[in-house]
Write a structure and sequence with these properties.
CATH topology of the largest domain: TIM Barrel
Number of strands: 9
Organism: Nocardioides euryhalodurans
Order of helices and strands: HEHEEHHHEHHEHEHEHEHEH
GO molecular function: phosphoric diester hydrolase activity
Largest sheet: 9 strands, mixed
CATH class of the largest domain: Alpha Beta
Distance between the termini: 57 Å
Keywords: Signal
Protein name: Glycerophosphodiester phosphodiesterase
Bound molecules: SN-glycerol-3-phosphate, calcium ion
Amino acid sequence: MPVLVRLLGLLLGLLLTTLLGVGLAAGVAAPAQAAPGSDVDVVAHRGSSGAAPENTLAAVRLAVQQRSDVVENDIQRTRDGELVILHDTSLARTTDVEERFPDRAPWNVADFTLAEIRTLDAGSWFAPEFAGARVPTLAEWGDAVGRRTGMLLEVKNPSLYPGIAADLDRQLDALPVFRAALRADRLVVQSFDHAWLRTYDQVAGNVPVGLLFAGGPPTEAQLADAATWAEQANPALGDMTEATVDQIHSHGLETHVWTVNDGQGMRRAIGWDVDGVITNYPQVLRDILRRG
Ligand code: G3P
Ligand code: CA
């Protein structure tokens, strides 16, 4: 065998042995430990509402751009039955409705048509650069969240809107962006009104639901019941301890804690192994999670 060929053979063998060695070493190495908090979802509260006007498409798009895992927003219903994205029962706090319609106090969403609401400025109250932002419809919201990010939809004051369970079910069924989210297990509907949520769950059996809690942690009885039909139990951070998280998990439920806007609270919740942290500052939470 010519010397050159033998030399090449030796080099090839050496290379293969090295590669094999690396592969074997990698193969026998202990499985990598998940970084603390690596499975905690960043949930943008009312969109990225610390930096853009809550419940507008600007806040939703910013949340997506900031790599939030989930975007949380609120639903109300107009006089003509359209589902829109807004936190309060009234339009007064987050739009210019008082100036535009001075004789229509208390400016409840339920007293205005979608066409009227679409003329309102939902951005100027927050900062001048958001002037002209509109109150989005649920369909527009779905398109803005898109096909990669999770959706957490809170139905506000459902007792004010008879039939809203069926309205929401129809829309989630009709629009491809929501059907895709449901197929990918990326959409949850939550509410503080547990009786309504139970009804909704019976109407929309394919939609995962979450119970919001205020004024204290969930009781053992509430969790035992929720475990038979819901997927999430979501209390406020101030109402929880690590034991609450363990208790919720012991019932097979997830917990997304709200609304955590300071680094200390975020670290506390991450340390408790919550499933998601709901925050106005998704970028801050993302940075904390990345730094570990
Ligand atoms: O998602 C939890 C949180 O949104 C509940 O509070 O009043 O901001 O809707 P609120
Ligand atoms: Ca909410």
